[in-house]
Structures are given as C-alpha cells and as structure tokens.
Amino acid sequence: MPVFDNEVVTSAHVRYVPVPALSGEAALITLDNGFDHKKPTSLGPAGLANLEAAMDEIEAHSPAVRLIAVTGKPFIFCVGADVTGMHLLRDREQAKLITNYGHRVFARFRDSAIPTFAFVNGATMGGGLELALHCDYRTLSSGVPAIAFPECFLGIVPAWGGTQLLANLIGADNAVKVIIENPLNQNRMLRAKQAYQLGIADLLLEPADFIERSLDWAVSVVAGQTQVQRREIERGEAWAAALAQGRAIADVRLHGGAPAPYRALELMAKAETAPFAEGTAAEDEVNADLLMSEEFRAGLYSFDLVQRRAKRPAGAPDKSLARPVTKVGVLGAGLMASQLALLFARRLEVPVVLTDLDQSRVDKGVAYVHTEVDKLLGKGRISADKANRLKASVTGSIDKSVFADADFLIEAVFEDMAVKKALFSEIESVIESDAILATNTSSLSITEMAADLKHPERVVGFHFFNPVAVLPLLEIVRGETTDDATLATAFAVSKQLKKNSVLCTDSPAFVVNRLLTRFLGEVFSTVDEGTPVEVADSALEPLGLPMSPFVLLQFVGMPVAHHVSETLHAAYPDRFKVSDNLARLIEAGKPGVYVWDEQGRQSVDPDLAKLLKVGDTVLTAEQVRDRALSALAQEARLMLDEGVVAEAADLDLCMILGAGWPFHLGGITPYLDRTGYSEKVTGKRFQPRGVASLPA
Questions:
Q1: How far apart are CA 532 and CA 527, in angstroms?
Q2: How many whole angstroms from its chain centre is CA 674?
C-alpha cells in the first residue's frame, strides 16, 4: 500500500453509547484529524487503516453493538481522499491499490450485519460522501454548507463507489447533476437542504442537537418503529436520457478536452444493471488510468494554487500594518458599483455609501442593492433581521461630505483617466489623509491616477472581475507611490470580502486582461485577415475553456474589450492591435457577432457580412490555435521578465480564478510547457519538469 509521507492522519475514535431501548449499545465512530475545521478531515492510506481498525474493534465488541454510526469533528464530516499525497503515486499499480483499498474499507459499512448510519454533521465531499453512501441510512445537519463530488473538476472520477451508488439512490438524472454538472460549473456545491431534497439523506435535522437526535432516530429505525421510504428509480430510457444529458453538458464545457466526466458517465451506465462488485472493479481500473494522467496532475497543481498559494499572497505586506475599515464609500452607482456596494455591506458589515452625478442614479444603485438583498431573503440565504440590517447599511448621496469619515473608498466609474483623476481630486478634499482610495480600473495606470494628489501613497488598484459575487479573483495593484499600510489594508479587506488576491505591479491591464487580450486578440485578428468567424471561434475548443472567444467578447462587452485593447496598443503597439472591425460593430450598436433565436440556437449575425472589412488570408482552426498559444507564451514570458507578478504560479492563479482557465489544464504556464509552446517561442520552460504533469 502506498504511503503518503505528508499525510495528516485521520483517527477513527470509537465510543459506545448505551441504548436501553435496544438492550445494547450504539458504536459511534468519529473521524478527526486533530485540527479544527480550518484543516478539514480527509482519508489517506493511514486514515483508511484507522477506519478499518475501528470496524475490527466494533465487530470484536459484538453482539452488544446494535447499530454503528460514523460522524465527523465539528463542522466537518469528511472531505474525501487525501489529494495532497496523490502526486506521490509513481505508477498505475500504486494508483489502483489506493482506489481498491478504499473500496475494501468502505465495504465494511455496506456489508455489515449490524445496521450502519452516517450522521453527516459537516462538509462532505468525494470519498466522505461515498463513505456516507455505503451506510444503510443517513442523517444530515441542516447547517452543512458543502456537499459534493468534486472529482471531475480535478480530473478523476468518484471511485470509492460513488458512480455505482448515487444514481441507484437518487436517480440517474440527479446523479448527473452531482457528479457531472456541478463539478463542471465552477465546482458548485450542494447545501444541506438541496442534498436532502435530492434524496441523498433520509432525515434533515437542526445542528444544535444533531448527534443526539440522529441517534434517537437511528434507534427507532433499528427497533422497527420508523420505516425509511426511498424514491423509486427510473431505469431504461430515463437512465439513458440522463446520461446523454450528462454527455451534452461535458461537451459544452470541455469539448472532449478532458477524459474524466466521460469516464464517469461510462461507469454510471454500468451502475444501472451491473452487480456492485463489477462496478467497483471498473472504478478501480478507470481511476488508476486517471490518477496517472496529465490532466489529473495538472488538476492537482491547480487545486494546490487555489487552496494554498491563494491564501498566502506573494509579496503582501505584514498584516499588522492594515488599518481598520469602519465605513466604505463607493464612487459610482452603476451596475459594477452597486455590486461592489452589496459585497462590501455583506462581508464587512459596515455602513456603505454610494454616490454619482445625480440623485436618480444614486437611487437606482441603492435600489439594486435592496432588490438583491430581497432575493437573498427569498432564497433563505439570510434572515429577515439580516436583510433589514443590510438595507439600512447601504445608502446614497450626491453630497460628497458624507464620505468625510469613510476609511476605504473605491471608484467604479467610466474607464477614463481624466474622469477618475478628477473624481479622486474632488474626494481628497473631503476625506481624511489616511483614508484609502481604491480603483477598480481594469487597465489604467494606478501611478498616473495618483500623481496629482496630495497623498498619492494611499491609492491602490483593487480590480474585481464580473460578476463580482461569483468570480473569486481580486488583482491588487501597487502603484509606484503606494505605501505598505495601504497595501496591507487592501489585502485585509480582500480577505474579509472572501476574495483571493494576487499582487501585481502597475503595468498596463495588469494580469488577466493583458493575457486574455493578447491571447484572444490573435483570434480576432485572424477574422480581420479573412478567417471565417465560425472557424476562428472554434479554434480553442480543444482547451475546454468556459466560453469561446467571441461569446466571451459579447459577455464582457465589446466597448470594454475595445478600450482595453487601446490601452495595451498604446503601451505595446507591436504586439497589441486595435481592431477597426470591432469599432465598426460598436458603432453599429451590435452587442457581438452572434444572434440567438427563440429556441436559443446561436448563429452569426447576418449583418456582419456588410459591416466587416476583411482580408483574404484564411487559416484553419489548428493554425488559429497555434498562433494564439504562441502569442500567449510570448506575453507570459515578457510579463515575468517585467516582474508583473512574483512567479509563474501567480499568472496561473490569476487565469484560473479570474478567467475560468480550466483546472485540468493546470494553469497557462504548465500547459504551455506540456504542449511545447514555451520552448518553441521563448527558448525555455516556465516550470521544472514534473510540475503539473506526471513525474519526470
């Protein structure tokens, strides 16, 4: 059996609880790695051995034991296999051993002659959910915020019985949602109520006395006083239709670019009719393949970036320098500004004031926030009391004097340097000398924006990505005069906002917009030169990006993209072009190159033929892709040489969190290394061999 040298070993503590109603005892196993909820419990080889030993002890204690229940430490049930040790697997045989061992240990719960229960008290993912599924019955705390099978997000499949058990419990349609759709939708999690409604748990209980009530219910089940009803599972055509839908989702998201969801669907197809042992044997084989794949090693690299590097931003000043923030001013009241106001109010729980040119715009911005709060209340995400407090905390005014006591002000106005400088100059005459001025600019110079102020040291870039509530990246940009206290406060506020921050130097368009503009700009240029839109737009499909180039252009907004390209062209005219065709489409009032019919079918806008002026150079999709990736490799190398970020890993983190770069590609720099573009274009790799790939 492989050994994970760095495994945080999970213990399986057993205690026996007298149950007079059953004339015996209940054996309660608690999974605990010895840390608090900030280090969730997982199962590596040693943890699985401890769980197996617990079952040995309980069975030796029989016949006094009338029921077995497994639960977790406070707030955590089990978040699955210990992925931090997976990179130590050196060959397919080791990979198969670890998968098979999990099957053997979990089978002790499924095959036990003593009734087994999972008391799911906290976060439950992957192998933790599979352990619960192997039990005969499940209770679930209503406070559990995260239940999921994230495996396909990482490049593997649920392989400790999940592909065989879940569909047979909740139906193939619901299983596709949990195993395929949610992981491919930015690794979406289920909340407790959603999981219960799907049928994953038999009983939903309040957190306060969850274990006691779960135990009472389990006793009633064993005593025959409570009968558990489960949904009838549709097979045949319904099963096949669900799997077809799963394949369609994978095709839309990945275009065949990663194998995991397709292999998961194969296993789920087997689960309809195959004996359980045959299905789990197939899981052993599939996961052995995937654990030794480039996609999974890339997924591990991405996971490590998001879980570790994102929480300790490179170059951030000592957090003790951060100043308290007790009131926030939002300069602007448009959609982005209103989203920011809501976010600051929810996360910081301090007064937030919006301003704009006239009262009607201010009122509209405040109304947006109040409407969104009402939606949260309607969905049960917040209480009525919390909703009232949030609404009261967000106000608006055209009188700038209301910002006199604000500690942190952020502008989200029109992307024009003169406008932003004038606004900061006006505000500086009102606020305290140490109040921070943050800008949400997507491309403009922080240094220039601060140049004419009395206190330029308190200006910092604070670049969010749209939609603000969804995308987790925050680019924090240090201008030439930005001081450490301002920067430390920016990072502290970012953490309170639950965003992941990357420190950038003050260079045009920072990280994500610069890389995307160069990368996708090459695709757009091939259309200007004569390649059909359909060919150019399909060129990047093998990468499995969340949106094609021209759909992304329409989502971001062509005027925004055009402005960023102008900024970058002014800085680097030899590499960044400004498309005259894009300007023509904007002038004609076109939102993009596509139109959609009533059935949601996409087609190229027929007006393009008369609006676009193109050349006669027609490239294939492969040629377009080669050109775009070559440009990306060149720009990434130049940015590292310029010191825009500390390391290549920060470029990768920005693209994963801010641009939806797929986990299975492992960030842009390892992908460019694996595909040979790094050395072909720049003469060297970005990362050592073996990083985000199989061992060298």
A1: 6
A2: 24
**Is 161:106 a contact under the CB 8 Å cutoff?**
yes
Amino acid at the residue 384? A
Longest dimension (CA), the chain: 87
Confirm whether 130 is a catalytic residue. Answer: yes
The dihedral region occupied by 573, where left means phi > 0, alpha psi between -120 and 50, and beta the remainder, is alpha
Catalytic residue chosen out of the listed positions 25, 57, 59, 130: 130
Antiparallel, parallel or unpaired: β 408-411 and 137-141: unpaired
Instruction: Looking at 255-334, list the stretches that DSSP marks H as alpha helix, in order from N- to C-terminal side.
Output: 260-271, 276-291, 294-307
Strand order through the sheet with 352-355: 394-396, 352-355, 328-331, 408-411, 436-439, 459-464, 473-478, 500-505
Rounded to an integer, what distance in angstroms lies between the CA atom of residue 124 and that of residue 195? 11
Residue 162 above 80 pLDDT? yes
The lowest-confidence range among 267-281, 471-485, 591-605 is 591-605
Q: With a cut of 70, say whether residue 1 has pLDDT above it.
A: no
The residues, any chain, with a CB within 8 Å of residue 514's CB and separated by 6 or more, are 507, 508, 568, 635, 639, 644
Q: Assign 3-state DSSP to the chain and report helix, strand, coil percentages, each to 5.
A: 50, 15, 35
Query: In the prediction, which pLDDT does 100 show?
Result: 93
Percent above pLDDT 90 for the chain:
79
Long-range pairs of 131-134 with CB within 8 A, sequence gap ≥ 24:
131/43, 131/70, 131/78, 131/106, 131/160, 132/70, 132/77, 132/200, 133/161, 133/162, 133/165, 133/166, 133/169, 133/200, 134/106, 134/107, 134/109, 134/110, 134/161, 134/165
pLDDT score recorded for residue 600: 78
Distance from C-alpha of 519 to C-alpha of 625, rounded to nearest angstrom = 10
Q: Rounded to the nearest 5°, which phi and psi values hold at 304?
A: -65, -40
pLDDT number for residue 122? 96
- Whether the pLDDT of residue 393 is over 90: the answer is yes
Looking at residue 341, its pLDDT comes to 96
Compute the average pLDDT of residues 678-690: 94
Q: Is the dihedral of CA 151, 156, 159, 162 positive or negative?
A: positive
H-type alpha helices, 574-642: 580-587, 608-611, 621-642
Region 355-381: mean pLDDT is 93
**Quick one: pLDDT band at residue 547, thresholds 50, 70, 90?**
confident
pTM of the model: 0.87
The first and second tokens of residue 356, run together, are: 């704009």
Do 496 and 347 form a contact (C-beta atoms < 8 A)?
yes
State yes or no: is 212 an active-site residue.
no
Considering only CA atoms, give the Rg of the chain. 27
Half-sphere exposure of 506 (CA within 13 A, CB side): 17
| HEC profile of 498-551 | CCEEEEEECCCCCCHHHHHHHHHHHHHHHHHHCCCHHHHHHCCHHHCCCCCHHH
pLDDT digits (tens, 9 = 90+) for 298-340: 888 998 898 888 888 999 999 999 999 999 999 999 999 999 9
Beta bridge partners of 116: 68
pLDDT, the chain, mean: 93
Single out the catalytic residue among 7, 151, 294, 372.
Answer: 151
CA distance 685 to 687: 6
The structure tokens listed for 126 are 């992957």
User: In 3D, which of 406, 457, 451 has the Cα closest to residue 425?
Assistant: 451
470: pLDDT confidence band, cut at 50, 70 and 90? confident
How far apart CA 536 and CA 622 sit, in angstroms, is 9
